[in-house]
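Consider the tokenized backbone below.
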């Protein structure tokens, strides 16, 4: 029984951290995509 708890503790924590980081990065990527699109539109309007 202790082995099962130990495996869950060792695997569960990295999975939780990975999910947290993926959720954070997704929001930042959305903002970056919007900024790139705005920059592209600005460059095209100057031409």
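A designed sequence for it:
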């Amino acid at each position: 029984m202790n082995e099962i708890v130990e495996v869950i503790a060792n695997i569960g924590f990295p999975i939780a951290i990975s999910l947290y980081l993926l959720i954070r990065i997704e929001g930042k990527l959305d903002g970056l995509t919007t900024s790139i699109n705005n920059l592209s539109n600005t460059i095209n309007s100057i031409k």
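The two ends are 69 Å apart (CA to CA).
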